[in-house]
Design goal:
Blueprint (H helix, E strand, L loop, with lengths): L4 E6 L2 E7 L14 E7 L1 H11 L3 E8 L1 H5 L2 H8 L2 E7 L6 E7 L4 E7 L17 E5 L3 H7 L7 E5 L3 H4 L1 H8 L4 E2 L6
Parallel strand pairs: 1-4, 1-8, 2-6, 4-5, 8-9, 9-10
Antiparallel strand pairs: 2-3, 6-7
Length: 184
C-alpha cells in the first residue's frame, strides 16, 4: 500500500468552544453550559484526519511562543502529525472562539489570525505528494507559483470565500481540487 504524504498549510489555533442554550442578544451576559479547550485550525483538522486514515501529514504554519507553552505542538506530534515545518515566531497567537447551540445546528466561529497572517510561499517545503491549503489568504496560493509543481494540491478557502471572492477565484485556478461548503 502506498501512503501519500500530505502537507497542510494554514493555521494552528488554540480553540475555545462554548456550548450555549441559545444565541445571546447584544449586550447580554451568557453563562455557557459547556466548554472545550484545545488545538484547532483548518490545517490541523485536515492533517489529523489524514493521519487517522493511515496517511502521513505535515503542517506548515506559524505559531507564537505562548502556543508552544500550552503544548500544542507536542499534542500534534503525539497524534502523529509532523510539526517540523511549523515555525515559532514572536507575535500574537492564532485563536478561535466557537459558539455552538446543540440541536439547532448553529455554529459561529470568531477567528483571530495572529502570526499565521505572515505565512508566505517560501515556507512551503519541496516535500510531500500533496499540498493542501486550509483557510489561507488566496494570495498565498497565487504567489506560490512553481512551489506546487509535481504535486497535487487542494484548497479549502473557508471564510476567505466571503472575505476575498476575487482572490479565491484566482487561487482555485492554481490547484487541482477545491472544497466549498454551502451555507445552510
Amino acid at each position: 500500500m502506498v501512503v501519500l504524504w500530505h502537507v497542510s498549510v494554514g493555521n494552528v489555533n488554540v480553540d475555545f468552544s462554548f456550548v450555549l442554550d441559545g444565541y445571546p442578544a447584544p449586550g447580554v451576559n451568557v453563562v455557557a453550559r459547556g466548554l472545550w479547550f484545545g488545538v484547532g485550525g483548518a490545517s490541523v483538522n485536515y492533517a489529523s484526519c489524514v493521519v487517522r486514515l493511515g496517511g502521513r501529514a505535515s503542517v506548515v504554519s506559524l505559531v507564537d511562543p505562548f502556543v508552544v507553552k500550552l503544548g500544542v505542538l507536542e499534542w500534534l506530534s503525539i497524534l502523529g502529525v509532523d510539526v517540523s515545518y511549523v515555525r515559532v515566531v514572536e507575535g500574537e497567537p492564532n485563536i478561535a472562539v466557537i459558539l455552538m447551540v446543540p440541536g439547532k445546528s448553529l455554529r459561529t466561529i470568531i477567528s483571530y489570525r495572529g502570526v499565521s497572517r505572515r505565512l508566505d510561499p517560501s515556507m512551503i517545503p519541496d516535500a510531500g505528494d500533496h499540498v493542501h491549503f486550509a483557510s489561507v489568504n488566496p494570495k498565498l496560493i497565487v504567489d506560490a507559483g512553481g512551489k506546487l509543481e509535481g504535486r497535487t494540491s487542494s484548497y479549502d478557502p473557508g471564510g476567505e470565500v466571503l472575505g476575498d471572492p476575487v482572490g479565491v477565484r484566482k487561487a482555485i485556478t492554481r490547484v487541482d481540487r477545491v472544497s466549498l461548503m454551502k451555507k445552510s
